[in-house]
Amino acid sequence: MNSLGLSIILKMGCICSRETILINSRKYYVLEHLGEGGFSTVDLVEDAHTHKTYAVKKIICHGEEDLKVAMKEIEYYGLLKHPNIIECFDSALKDRPNPVLNSISEVMIVLPYYKRGTLAFDLERRSVHREYMNASEMLNMFLHICEGVKAFHEAKPNPLAHRDLKTANILISDDQSPVIMDLGSVAVARVKICGSSEAQQLQDLASERCSMPYRAPELFSVESYCMIDERTDIWSLGCILYAMCYFKSPFDAVYERGDSVALAVISGNITFPDSSPYDPEIHELILYMLRVNPMERPYIYSVIEKTLDVISKIEVKA
Length: 318
What we know:
Strand order of the largest sheet: 1-2-3-4-6-5
Structural class: alpha+beta
Mean pLDDT: 92
């Protein structure tokens, strides 16, 4: 056999051996495994017909409650249409009982693929050489994140909260715009807690779905009689802006040391590096969001207004 014939056979063999995914009669080739969380995996795929690349999120459902949460996530993609919130191109539910994974079904969601990755990835790269973001560009990016969050908080018929806002859940588009992803933790924002059982239930859910270094204090220790609202996201935004300045959340170091993040968060003791390249107004904006008492914390409208004010002051100084 000549070398050309062999190369064709090898190429055909390579195509045939590719893992494929079928979603609503559309075939995708799996190119790469991008990552996984506690409830899902994400693959980079190529549409077999158009050759466009996408990210496919697979959610393994171990029971009816998991399935309900996954279907709710798909519903939220349809409800939340905003340039700073990730869109969903397609989705499918497949009944796939798997005794090994102890699962009853699998939900697949076709999402856009952002080759620049996440804000967390960008900050990790910057941290190596202490490459600080330009203050004005940083605040404008943060403003777009806030605009995305506002879409959650203005959702109808009920305001929604993302509940897991963090740098790893913000993608960066080709034009440097931030895009909020992972709607798996999204919930109705305003929850009235009546009794210790309801409080424990919400606390358990938060510990399962809300990342510790970005989690609001009221979700670490939920009171038996209280009101939880969308301002849980405002705390997370304060942690995100801090990370945009100094590469990590103010509570990441505590988490990495293995110390109590809950105690650190509830104490609300936020410090800034002595050699900070940023104006005091930016620190004030961060502290404005990181108020331990949720009733003293601003709503998203006030955060946007204050961010615009800080941007104008910085631009005047420049």
